[in-house]
């Protein structure tokens, strides 16, 4: 069974976006952090998105601008097998994308059984919350950005149960970001 991983950037006060949805605070580029992101993109695997994140990623990563700015990441995003959960999308036009329209928990349980490599949820906070409640996420990778927003959207808002985690790795970057890897302590 494949591991299901959540990857998210958060402010130090726990928000994944500003109240208006802006994610600009999360992009603190420097050579060391960019290399980390590129290494993640090279690793292959499967990506899982909710509809909103999928549409945001689709609007940028397949573009010439993305390829010019971060060619390794753009190529990795293109090559990766992508899955998008949605009740409203009619089709998924991005290369290597499968639309999952059935009941969320059933679809993800089947995906975990069938996948040969880890499945990484990029962003998609609502999806992370629902799958956390269902006990399906095995690992949480959080990039803590050195900024306090004061208000915004919280990653685990609306969770129905407490989520116990075990810290398994930390890494500090020169841009002030801190990578935290947590295993789900089921």
Would you mind describing this structure in some detail?
- The chain is an alpha/beta fold and 186 residues long.
- The chain has a single domain, classed as Dihydrofolate Reductase, subunit A.
- The protein contains 6 helices and 10 strands, in the order ββαβαααββαβαββββ.
- The strands form 2 sheets. Strands 5-4-3-6-1-7-10-9 form an 8-stranded mixed beta sheet.
- Helix 1 runs parallel beside helix 4.
- The protein starts with a strand and ends with a strand.
- The mean pLDDT is 93.
Number of strands: 10
Mean pLDDT: 93
Distance between the first and last residues' Cα: 16 Å
Which strand order spans the largest sheet, edge to edge or round the barrel? Answer: 5-4-3-6-1-7-10-9
- Summarize the main sheet: 8 strands, mixed
Task: Quickly count the domains.
Answer: 1
- Element pattern in H and E: EEHEHHHEEHEHEEEE
Describe the structure concisely for a colleague.
The chain is α/β, with parallel strands linked by helices and 186 residues long. The protein contains 6 helices and 10 strands, in the order ββαβαααββαβαββββ.
Structural topology:
Blueprint: E1 4-11, E2 15-17, H1 31-42, E3 46-50, H2 51-60, H3 64-69, H4 71-79, E4 81-85, E5 97-100, H5 104-114, E6 119-122, H6 125-133, E7 139-145, E8 153-154, E9 165-172, E10 178-184
Parallel strand pairs: 1-6, 1-7, 3-4, 3-6, 4-5
Antiparallel strand pairs: 2-8, 7-10, 9-10
Identify the notable features of this structure and list them briefly.
186 residues; alpha/beta; Dihydrofolate Reductase, subunit A; 8-stranded mixed beta sheet; two-stranded antiparallel sheet; 6 helices; globular
